[in-house]
């Protein structure tokens, strides 16, 4: 029932005091309820050399065994491996995606190492942008894959940052919230650690790398966040094995000279990291990703495509108009290309046609030639046939003539024989007739054969 | 920081007349990865299995409290139905236009005007910017045809304003939300049925905004008359295909549906408004004093104001805002973006912009196939 002093300072809204309990103080509760139903999404990117303890730290951080396998040192290029898990604690469901770099820092030539990481981050932003620009979109169902936090694992050399680290962090600081951590911190003594941290921070500042600062504007958490900002980078030790200390099983690493307890704040900063990353600032990390890094990406991308908010006369131009103009341009371009393709097609067709005509003509020629040959042969054969026919005709004529002759001669012989044989026996006559017939026939035959 | 665990704060003073929506499982599909065992909510000292994921609820709540909330309610109805009084009763302060801008005499404007007044109110650390949008002149003229048009235009203008801001390149961190979340429509207590004006208005506007119909000045109806009237109204709404809030198609799961079905059986709420307190049984209560008795506004035996207040403010406010932003606004956006992009053959493309255009010919080819 108190009068409100407006931190927002809306000029056209007047402060008002309520004279009774209205009940909209349950609004945050309703909001949280809705988010709990939907579930939360958190994506962590772990960058570090192979074997520096990224997977182990993730296992320790989220108190589960994520079933990672060791990667080899012989990867030709840096790859990114993303795995999504569903975690649940009390009634909060978290969709956690852990992206690990594989082969980072293993190559002989490390110039391209950071590029794959940058590309991956950009791809996630791009897919969100695509979804946001769609006409029919479903943003609240969308599985947000943008990287919310990037844990950069620094090797515990004790001296300073490697140049690869500096270059990579510089490229990533405007795209993602970077939280540097010193890995395998149980190899550094306390005093060395202190010096190492100071060196790292001063190098980051002098190179202009902007790492993620825990927010200090909210009174409830500003004190702890400011304190933590001074302890960056966190020196962490990860372990999934448990060792018995006193009468409890704690996560620790057992050495001959002692036991390093992961959750002991004197031994390493693991508890602080977990608190900062998950308990206190998870929502802020997500918000920064969306409102700062994603907006920057979106602005750059849209400007690169030629969209502006104001046209050359500094009058506000809506995205619609710019889009219309681009669209006309694009359509014009398309039409032109279509014309080109059509012309090319026509030309090809013509070429093909001429080829085919050529072939046709050739074939025609051949055909004619063959036809000629054929007709020549035919005429030759015809001639031969005619001559043959002629010969057959002459032969048959001759045969007929010969037969006629034979018939006549037979008759005369027969008459002569008759007269003779009236005196002789008829048998003899027959014989003689036969003989003479035979002779005549023979003669005739001989004549015929001679003529053939 | 001490224990990081978050607890759901339920205000003990809040009397909720139906159960809260329990967090039920949404349609998130679980990836085929081994699920770690569910952890208990215990976070005593030395409990090393606690990670602290549920602390995000507390973080969210903190962020929401810091940002504050916005609510825009529009009230529509003939003059004299007690709209302003009801607003004042709902928010227990003088939020209506009449209380703020004192008019020398009541006059009905020649055309329907849209007047909005904003207030910053705070309760238990929760800050809200409440905007009440009044529509004097609605239904008061002789010829009331197309009286819904200025209202429809206003609502669409708010959507348009939000859309323009959203598609800007340099856009604000938090886009100011002036979209109408809820439209309360006042039905005069005739006791008979819906009038043509009511049907016309509600059927047109239920497509673009959440409509909550209320029976105004319900103290003129006896309980039987009230029930009969409500039934006729519900039948009229059903017959004309009018979907009032809570809309059936937006029920998320069976829990939701159960609660919303109970509400749907009670709409429209028969309300009585009053901003004057009277002494009843030793307590000071808001009510209307007449010769035959005092009508207590917050007594559910007398009128259904308490149900309306609970629905609108205590349990479903976030839901109303969500439906406005994720459904009504999206419908408007789709329509608006399609009307400038429709292809000559009438087929609208699915993507507004393919950012790969910058990449050259191959991408253009892809867009070409997209758009065909």
TrEMBL record, chain A:
Coiled-coil residue windows: 342-405
GO molecular function: GTP binding
Keywords recorded for this protein, A-Z: Coiled coil, GTP-binding, Nucleotide-binding
Top-rank lineage group of the source organism: Eukaryota
Domain annotation Septin-type G: ranges: 38-304
One matching Pfam family: Septin
Family from the record: Belongs to the TRAFAC class TrmE-Era-EngA-EngB-Septin-like GTPase superfamily. Septin GTPase family.
Name listed for the protein in its UniProt record: Septin
The organism of origin for this protein: Salvelinus namaycush
Taxonomic classification: Eukaryota, Metazoa, Chordata, Craniata, Vertebrata
Gene transcribed to yield this protein: LOC120051258
Automatic annotation (TrEMBL), chain B:
GO CC terms: cytoskeleton
N-terminal signal peptide: none
Swiss-Prot/TrEMBL keywords: Cell cycle, Cell division, Cytoplasm, Cytoskeleton, GTP-binding, Nucleotide-binding
Gene3D superfamilies xref list: P-loop containing nucleotide triphosphate hydrolases
Subcellular location: Cytoplasm, Cytoskeleton
CDD domains: CDC_Septin
One Pfam short name: Septin
Region annotation (Disordered) ranges: 22-44
SUPFAM superfamilies, sorted: P-loop containing nucleoside triphosphate hydrolases (SSF52540)
Domain Septin-type G: 67-339
One annotated GO biological process: cell division
Protein origin, superkingdom: Eukaryota
Molecular function via GO: GTP binding
Major location (coarse): cytoplasm
Protein family (similarity comment): Belongs to the TRAFAC class TrmE-Era-EngA-EngB-Septin-like GTPase superfamily. Septin GTPase family.
Protein name in the entry: Septin
Species for this entry: Salvelinus namaycush
Species classification: Eukaryota, Metazoa, Chordata, Craniata, Vertebrata
Gene from which the chain derives: LOC120032600
